[in-house]
Each structure stands twice: as structure tokens, then as C-alpha cells.
Amino acid sequence: MKTLALVLFLLTYLLLILLPKYRTQTAVVVAILFVALGILPFNKVLTTIDWNVILMISGTMGIVSLFIESKMPAAMADFIIDRVGSVKWVIISLSLFAGIISAFIDNVATVLIVAPVALNLAKRINISPVYMLIAISISSNLQGAATLVGDTTSLLLGGFANMDFLDFFFFKGRIGLFFIVQLGAIVSSLVLIVFFRKYNQPIHLEEKEKVEDMFPTYLIIAMVVLLILASFIPNKPSITNGLICVILLQIGLVKELLINKNRNALNVTLLQIDYQTILILMSLFIIIGGITEVGVINDISRLFLKFGNGGLFTVYSLFVWFSVLVSAFIDNIPYTATMLPVAAKVAAGMGIQPYILYYGLLIGATLGGNITPIGASANITTLGILKNEGYQVKARDFMKLSVPFTLSAVLSGYIIAWFIWL
């Protein structure tokens, strides 16, 4: 049974790489096979799925859709552009702005928010938007690990390690991932300054976006505040954070339907939720539950211990740089979901707390996806936007900026996380 589970698991990864258009179908079919073949008992299916993560993703995506429709993100971008003097600083400011937004909403949504502003700017001053959009994309990916709601990988870590919103700021008496990511953002910003040093054209906006509805902004603020407050509730239900996000989405939809009289709100908002990602995640929870059930996770953890020879720094380094390498070529969601239980098993085998390995995993997996155009959904979305505008971006052109940006961010996070948990 273990061999069968391992073969199906490896086949899943191979098909996810070779058939990216059929990721959802691949994950769902393999999950069904895991249950049908008895690798994961049927009575454990529902308990294997992390419903808190699923509800949080669903609710957050819906709220973000309302937030984008309100034009608030575009208005905020206009505010930034109007207060800097040159194209160089506009690009850097928009990239940092994308990072700030991405710490609280999905990376792809962030790109969809900020990219139109950059495209409009490029047309006004007659320059190529390629590297502007690449900078925005990789900056949004960088900040995904900063907070609990910043990226699916963060939600996975929060659910697996029982970490709440505030734990990403301060955890176990130490600074959390948020501040580690900010250090990476500062270091990688220096890369952007050097890369765009010749973009000195002056810029000024004449037409600006107007915010159509402040209520979605209040929903975003309420979500963050309520997730923080929920962190202080002892022995709360496991789906508390997910319920907060879903209930706030329902409030937003009721307001759109009854007060704004927007009959299309329900269809438009619900269609913006990425149901394919949700199905993939649910399927992955089942697949990982199956390989855990038959002992594959234990075998993988022993392999890491063997290569690391039991030394914590070596094992930690393996988690970071192996994650960078893998995430550069495949989606970091299935990889992170797989490796979290491996990190826990490795830590248990070494007799240590697992958090240094969790941090190393998230730093490598979240940032590593920035190296190549196919390593992160936000990058793929960015290339799609550029293609629609008539720009074909080659991998080497993308990596001219992404490689130094990513390596500088990973290296700084790698070093600071080690000294925090040393």
C-alpha cells in the first residue's frame, strides 16, 4: 500500500508540472483514487481537510473582489504616483505598494489591482511595461508570507501549526515572519533601485480614479481586526478564522444586493472566487493525509535527516534552498502542503521545536517561486497580461530581474530566521 501511495503521489507532482492546465482534474482524480483504493480510510476524509483554511480562502477572495470593484486600490496607487517625481520611483513605489497590499490579500489579486495602473503609466510616457509589471509581480510574491492572510502558503502554515494572525508578527517571544519578510523587502528594494536607475523620466497624473464605495475597505479592515482579536480567544473552534472571513463576505454581499441594489453582485463576486485552487487544496489535503497514513511522510523526513546528518543548521539549510529550487518550477501550494508534515516529523526526530524548519520552508517556498515565470501564479498572471498587451516575455528576460531580487530576499530571510531561532 505504501508503494502504491508513493507512486500515485509522485505521479500527481509529475502531472502538475507537465499538465498545468489540468491541475485541478489531476488533484481531484488522484484524491478520489486515494480513497477508493483504501489508502486513506473514507471515515477520515472530512477530518483530513483543513476547513479553516478552505473557508478563509473562500471568504478572503470574495472580499477582495468587492475591494477591487470599489476602485479603492487604484485610487491608492494614483495617490502614490502623484507624489513621486520620476518613473524610477513610481515603479519602486508601486512595487512596494503591491507588497503592502499582498500582505493582506492574494498575490494574483494584487497583480490585477496594480498592473492596470502600471500599463497606463507606460503608455503615457511611451516605455515598455515589461519590467514594471515583473517588479510588481515579484514584490507581491515576496510579501505573501508576511501575514496569515497574505498567501495560501501562509494559510497552510497557520492551519497546520495552529498559528493565529498575531503569531506572524511575534511568536514564542521572538519576532515573526512579518518582520523577516520586511527585511527581505528592504534588501530586495536595493536591487530594484539599481535595476531601474536609468528610468529618470518625470511623471504626473492628470486623471485619477475615484472610490465608488468605501464599504469593501471597511470589510478588509474589519477582517484584519477580527482575526487579531480572535487570536486572544482561548479554546476557540478550529474554524473561527474561516467563519470570520465568510461572514464578512456575506455582509458585503447583502449590502450590495439590498442597499446598492446591485443584482449582479452575487454572481460577479462568487465567480471571482478561485474554485479551482480550493478544489486543488481539498484534494491535496486528502492526498497528504493518505501518504501520512501509510508512512510515506515518515520516510521523507528520515531522508532529510540522513542528508542533514542530524545537524540542525544543515537540515534548516536543506529546507530553505531545496524549497527555493522546487518552488522555482512547480506551484508552491502542493509543495508547502506536502512539506509541512515532513518538517514536523524531522523536528520530532531531532527532538527540537519545528518552528525554525517551518520558517525556512515558508521563506524558501514562497520566495523561490519568484525565480522563474512559471514558479508562482502571480508571475503567470503577469505574463498573461503582458501577452494581451502584445509583449512576449522570455524566461531569461524575466530572470534578469527576478533572480537577483529573489536571492537577495531569500538570503536575508535565511540568515535572520536562523539567528532568531538559534
UniProtKB/TrEMBL annotation:
GO terms for molecular function: arsenite transmembrane transporter activity. GO terms for cellular component: plasma membrane. It holds the Pfam family CitMHS. It comes from the Bacteria. Residues 13-362 form the Citrate transporter-like domain. Keywords: Cell membrane, Membrane, Transmembrane, Transmembrane helix, Transport. PANTHER family: P PROTEIN. This is Arsenic efflux pump protein. It comes from Thermobrachium celere DSM 8682.
